[in-house]
DNA sequence: ACGATTTCCGGACAGGTGTCCGCGTCAAGC
DNA sequence: GCTTGACGCGGACACCTGTCCGGAAATCGT
């Protein structure tokens, strides 16, 4: 009763054969008990189950899964395990997959190692592979081709624009469009972009949205929006935003509204403005992206874009389950999730 | 060359037998190539490897692991996937395990499901199980007993006080002791505890540290420290800290220094004090716990306790590797990690 | 006590891989 | 042309489980 010290601890049993020997039954009989097959005397069922409870026997999953066709597992490849929105997606996806009877294999991406990770997933015979986050485009495309060749269901969450890839992603153009509409309605006409370069391909979508909103008001992107990204190295986002804001403050006529790549950068900029004696939102407006918990913890609370994680994962599950049940689609699926602008107190009417 | 549309795509191959048929060799020969056995002509080796590259064949891990004794995998049971410090531990542990050739199986704890999770780990024949975070003590103890019985290496990170469990944990008593020494040296003599009840068993260790620091100055815990935990429900930590601080502000003589359970609560309290017109650290001092990124993003930056995650995981890996190589220890291992107080600008000399 | 029925045994196979071993084959050396 | 290697073939076994099936044994009813 009291291990681990006691000498008469129950024996370690690692196979149904050993368990059968232990209870004095045939291996097949034990197997029948484990799989709830009919035609067994209640007394023997109970005898086996008691032995299982005592010894804590667990059937070898490898032998079971070797035989059965479906492993009921999906591989999840994460960009990293530190960015809050990525983790919220992982957490809810993992929970929902479990609810559908699927086990998750989680691996973390490292540059150049995506092939190793995918081979691991394939050798574990996962039924689907999900990528969450942003990756090297060439690498990711190569992995998708591999998955297509192996007829394994796949899905990319967030990273947008991979050919042949089934994708669920936030509509970042629409997000920027809505945010800019909000700022334009408040009277702002000159904008500072924080961490969003005007020409970099990875942020093209956001720029499109910004340009569209400006164009609707007869404004030109180059004339009314400015970006200082080349000047500052991006290490810690908070310091990055802080440094970017100081660049803008050195201008003769700084913009009145600032749109940041993410919440941390926005908060770093807010700090820089406040240190300079400016009041938010009286003198300048600042917006973030992601709607992390810190947004409400700021003074003033940060206006930002919500990623709509629940709908995103819901759509992801729909795509996954549909493909797992009905087979691969003939053409790649693209589902864009409409974002939502969360207006708080960091944005207000333009000063002049 | 251009699938998935092309008709002459390479065939799907799922076993060495099929691969052998495909290249016109014997299955055993293919197997020998895969396992780098000697005595093969270089030309045939290359022929097989070319076929593997073309078809993307991956040997079935279940069959391999069914035969081989060691699975080189460890199960990691997480309290949740949302708390930043837990995730930093997971991320670094996972990276280091991979560096040692181990695969991680990650599962998320849910009350009452720990048994299911452990059975999954055991059926996957993991070589070790790691728990990260705080769990139901009774449940965790039962799981540890199960692991001991199965002679599976285990380790508990954070949760302290489980009998027979190998544990690596931050010395929370010492953390509170150091923090209180810092505040006492600044002249503070009356303290508010935020989220740390005076009598709750789960926070006993911290209270010990606080009491020890007070006793060294001839002060009594009950007389000089106060906690309002029962009055407020704890949902979001930030709002919780905010509400707790308001309780203290309603007192005739509020404390001058506040020690919070974690950073979020501390920040909520800071906000409440600042809204009330108090300056930090001129009028009140506030301290947090965890040293999350947000600490440096506050105005003023938050004095807090650093969890020393790198040393923690380093110690964890030492324990794990030692037990994996040399077998289980006769007595449970307990390694406590000395914390470090990070002094920033949210603490200063007592006003009166 | 006998037949009918329930219950269990034990052999067999499949699933994919790693490994061992005897044997056939082919080419090179003499 | 013969011997000697080098090399590949293919059968066999082990790992563990799930399942089928014929036969043996125990149990039950009468």
Write the layout of secondary structure elements.
2 copies of one chain form a homodimer.
Chain A: H1 16-23, H2 27-34, H3 42-55, H4 61-67, E1 73-78, H5 84-99, E2 103-108, H6 114-123, E3 128-133, H7 137-149, E4 153-158, E5 167-170, H8 172-185, E6 191-194, H9 204-216, H10 221-224, E7 225-227, H11 237-249, E8 257-260, H12 263-275, E9 285-287, H13 294-297, E10 304-306, H14 309-326, E11 334-337, E12 340-342
Parallel strand pairs in A: 1-2, 1-3, 3-4, 4-5, 5-11, 6-7, 6-8, 8-9
Antiparallel strand pairs in A: 10-12
The structure holds a DNA duplex (30 and 30 nucleotides).
Task: Write up this protein.
The structure is a homodimer of 352-residue chains. By secondary structure, the first copy, chain A, is α/β, with parallel strands linked by helices. Chain A has 3 domains: 16-59, 434 Repressor (Amino-terminal Domain) (Orthogonal Bundle); 67-160, 3-Layer(aba) Sandwich (Rossmann fold); 172-307, Rossmann fold (3-Layer(aba) Sandwich). Chain A has helices at 16-23, 27-34, 42-55, 61-67, 84-99, 114-123, 137-149, 172-185, 204-216, 221-224, 237-249, 263-275, 294-297, 309-326; strands at 73-78, 103-108, 128-133, 153-158, 167-170, 191-194, 225-227, 257-260, 285-287, 304-306, 334-337, 340-342. In chain A, the strands form 3 sheets. In chain A, strands 2-1-3-4-5-11 form a 6-stranded parallel β-sheet, sandwiched between helices. In chain A, helix 5 links the parallel strand 1 (73-78) and strand 2 (103-108). In chain A, helix 1 packs across helix 3, helix 8 (172-185) packs parallel to helix 9 (204-216) and helix 11 crosses helix 12. The N and C termini of chain A lie far apart (80 Å). Mean pLDDT of chain A is 94; it is low at 1-6. At the A-B interface, helix 4, helix 5, strand 2, helix 6 and helix 7 of A face helix 4, helix 5, strand 2, helix 6 and helix 7 of B. Chain A binds a DNA duplex (30 and 30 nucleotides) through helix 2 and helix 4.
């Amino acid at each position: 009763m009291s291990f681990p010290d006691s000498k008469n601890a129950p024996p370690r049993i690692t196979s149904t054969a050993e368990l059968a020997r232990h209870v004095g039954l045939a291996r097949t009989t034990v197997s029948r008990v484990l799989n709830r097959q009919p035609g067994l005397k209640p007394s023997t069922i109970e005898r086996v189950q008691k032995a299982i409870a005592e010894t804590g026997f667990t059937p070898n999953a490898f032998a079971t899964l070797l035989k059965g066709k479906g492993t009921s597992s999906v591989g999840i490849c994460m960009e990293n395990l530190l960015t809050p929105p990525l983790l919220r997606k992982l957490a809810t996806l993992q929970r929902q997959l479990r609810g559908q009877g699927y086990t998750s294999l989680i691996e973390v991406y490292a540059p150049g190692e995506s092939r190793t990770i995918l081979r691991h997933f394939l050798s574990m015979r996962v039924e689907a592979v999900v990528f969450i986050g942003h990756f090297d485009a060439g690498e990711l495309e190569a992995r998708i081709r591999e998955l297509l060749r192996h007829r394994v269901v796949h899905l990319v969450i967030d990273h947008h624009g991979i050919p042949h890839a089934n994708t669920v992603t936030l509509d970042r153009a629409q997000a920027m469009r809505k945010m800019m509409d909000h700022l334009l309605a408040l009277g702002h006409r000159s904008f500072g972009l924080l961490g969003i370069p005007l020409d970099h391909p990875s942020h093209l979508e956001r720029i499109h949205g910004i340009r569209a909103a400006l164009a609707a008001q007869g404004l030109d992107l180059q004339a009314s929006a400015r970006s200082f990204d080349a000047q500052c190295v991006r290490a810690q986002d908070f310091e990055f935003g802080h440094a970017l804001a100081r660049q803008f403050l050195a201008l003769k006529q700084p913009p009145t509204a600032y749109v940041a790549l993410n919440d941390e950068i926005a908060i770093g900029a807010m700090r820089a403005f406040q240190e300079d004696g400016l009041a938010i939102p009286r003198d300048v407006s600042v917006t973030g992206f992601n709607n992390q918990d810190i947004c409400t913890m700021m003074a003033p609370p940060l206006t930002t874009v919500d990623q709509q994680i629940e709908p995103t994962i819901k759509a992801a599950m729909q795509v996954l389950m549909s493909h797992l049940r009905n087979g691969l689609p003939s053409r790649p699926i693209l589902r864009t999730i409409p974002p939502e602008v969360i207006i708080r107190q960091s944005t207000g009417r333009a000063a002049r």
